[in-house]
Design a protein that fits this description.
alpha+beta, 2 domains, 60s Ribosomal Protein L30, Chain: A, disordered N terminus, elongated, four-stranded mixed beta sheet, seven-stranded antiparallel beta sheet, 11 strands
């Protein structure tokens, strides 16, 4: 007698499915946490501690090897509560910039793959106890075999290495050592405030105490045709006279001009400079076979920029030019014998110029 056994297949139990999802979630969370790294700084200092360069080099290798990875840098100022809140944010941002600059200059990582943020001071007691630091967060997926290698590595990769915070020295002493303070120098807090607030205060003009010379060559050509007509009195045959054209001619007039300009500029202050322009003029008129060379009209200029460059506002420069009639005046030369090298006038002008650099990509995108 043959016995036929019928085996029923049951669908996977929901508990097994829940277990698989839970294991996957735990693994994913571990990978996300493993991609974090904290770099601790000394108080009141944006300088990277030398012991962290090895970790940064590992981060640079990961970013260089995997172009899809991105890095987020978040700076924290810890318990540096003696500084104003705005200065703490700037200090934390300067720390993030220091980390980014090291990765871009040493490993050639493009800056668009690194996102910056400065959190400044936190009211959280836990955050204050952790100290000033920069949090590095790698964003993106690594191959599974590399994740396994990272977890099994005894030395530790940048994703797994999170050094404990180093003991923080005295804030005043740390600031003096980082910034080179000595006895009798200004107060640490005031000096740090000046350093942070003066960052980026630049002008369009020449810096104070600097001297510049530049040379320009300008060529111009002038050509025209003019009609010469002469009227004379002639007899009308009846004993009277009438006006008649006795001369009619078309005369060509051309002129070539070379202007050599030497400009000398000196920065009296960062926002104020003085300029002097000395022109040497060479003119020729091939029709009348004339040539002239000599000094042109001197220019003396003063430029003043009332405030430093700002990303939101245009740069404003007030200027004043004084022209001296040092060249040959056109009112004093013989028409068919000489050529003028100047305008023959002393002129004083005032003006203002506004300029702003705009990114067309941002304008279109936003």
């Amino acid at each position: 007698m043959n016995i036929i056994t019928i085996k029923r297949t049951h669908p996977p139990h929901y508990r097994f499915i829940l277990f698989v999802v839970l294991v996957f979630s735990i693994c994913f969370c571990r990978i996300a946490v493993a991609n974090k790294l904290d770099l601790y700084f000394e108080k009141n200092s944006p300088k990277i501690v030398s012991s962290y360069y090895t970790e940064l080099d590992n981060i640079g290798r990961q970013l260089l090897k995997h172009p899809d990875l991105r890095l987020r840098l978040t700076g924290f100022s810890g318990n540096e509560s003696k500084l104003p809140l705005a200065d703490q944010r700037k200090l934390s941002m300067m720390r993030s910039l220091a980390v980014r600059d090291y990765l871009t200059s040493t490993w050639g990582i493009t800056s668009n793959r690194i996102e910056l943020a400065g959190r400044g001071f936190s009211d959280s007691v836990v955050e204050q106890q952790r100290g000033p630091r920069v949090e590095l967060l790698l964003q993106g997926d690594l191959p599974l075999e590399e994740r396994a290698d990272d977890r099994a590595s005894p030395r530790g990769s940048p994703a797994l290495s999170s050094p404990p915070p180093q003991p923080m020295p005295n804030p005043t002493q740390a600031a003096r050592e980082a910034l080179g303070f000595k006895r009798g120098d200004a107060d640490v807090q005031q000096t740090l405030k000046e350093i942070l607030t003066s960052r980026g205060a630049t002008y369009n003009l020449i810096e104070k105490g600097k001297f510049e010379i530049d040379y320009t060559l300008r060529y111009s050509y002038f050509g025209t045709d003019r009609v010469e007509v002469d009227f004379s009195s002639v007899s009308d045959g009846n004993g009277g006279t009438v006006e008649a054209v006795t001369l009619f001619d078309v005369v060509s007039d051309t002129q070539n001009s070379f202007r050599h300009r030497f400009r000398f500029a000196y920065g009296l202050r960062d926002d104020l400079n003085l300029q002097m322009t000395i022109p040497l003029v060479m003119k020729s008129d091939p029709i009348r076979d004339l040539e002239e060379a000599g000094l042109g009209d001197l220019f003396l200029s003063v430029n003043w920029q009332p405030y430093a460059k700002h990303p939101r506002y245009p740069s404003v420069i007030f200027f004043s030019d004084l022209q001296f009639a040092t060249g040959t005046s056109p009112f004093e030369v013989e028409l068919d014998e000489e050529l003028a090298t100047g305008d023959g006038l002393d002129v004083l002008t005032f003006g203002v110029s506004l300029s702003k650099i705009m990114d067309p990509g941002k304008r279109v995108a936003g």
